[in-house]
Structure formats: structure tokens, C-alpha cells
């Protein structure tokens, strides 16, 4: 790799400190990782894997809730205020 290309790519790389900060932020957002002294014990790969799993779980929950709202909507009068609220939630 030419030195010019190396300099250009190194400017766009994220610093190790930034990665550490981002991993710390992810750890705080994930319910599966205890907020104790285990921060250093959790590898970056483990945090990223848990993040992906958590996002998949959230997607499943959203799908399930959407299905439940759709079922509820089917039981309501289409012109009712409740039906309008549920339709707004499904959009």
C-alpha cells in the first residue's frame, strides 16, 4: 500500500479510544450485560454479538406487538376512535 493511501485510510479509521467508548455505550444499553466490573472481561466480539441478538429480539417483539394490534383492530368498529389510534400505531 502506498504511503499516501495509508495516510488517507488512517485518517478515516476510528481510534481505539472511540471504539472503547462505543463499546461502553453498547454495554450500558444491553440488559444482558451486568453493569459491574465485568466491562473489561466482555470482549468486543461478545458485546457486538449480544447487541445483534438484542436487536433481533426487539424486532421479534415489535412484530408480535404489531400482530396483536392488528388482531385487536379486526375486532373493533372501523370508524371508532380506538381503531384510529391502533391504525396510527401500526403506521
UniProtKB/TrEMBL annotation:
PROSITE patterns associated with the record: BHLH
GO biological process: regulation of DNA-templated transcription; regulation of growth
MF annotations from Gene Ontology: protein dimerization activity
Chief place of localization: nucleus
Keywords: Growth regulation, Nucleus, Transcription, Transcription regulation
All copies of domain BHLH, residue ranges: 3-58
Entry superkingdom: Eukaryota
CC per GO annotation: nucleus
Localization per record: Nucleus
Name of the molecule in the record: BHLH domain-containing protein
Amino acid at each position: 500500500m502506498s504511503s499516501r493511501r495509508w495516510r488517507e485510510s488512517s485518517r478515516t479509521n476510528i481510534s481505539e479510544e472511540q471504539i472503547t467508548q462505543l463499546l461502553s455505550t453498547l454495554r450500558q444499553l444491553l440488559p444482558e450485560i451486568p453493569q459491574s466490573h465485568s466491562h473489561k472481561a466482555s470482549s468486543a466480539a461478545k458485546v457486538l454479538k449480544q447487541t445483534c441478538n438484542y436487536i433481533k429480539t426487539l424486532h421479534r417483539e415489535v412484530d408480535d406487538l404489531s400482530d396483536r394490534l392488528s388482531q385487536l383492530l379486526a375486532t373493533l368498529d372501523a370508524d371508532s376512535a380506538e381503531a384510529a389510534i391502533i391504525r396510527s400505531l401500526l403506521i
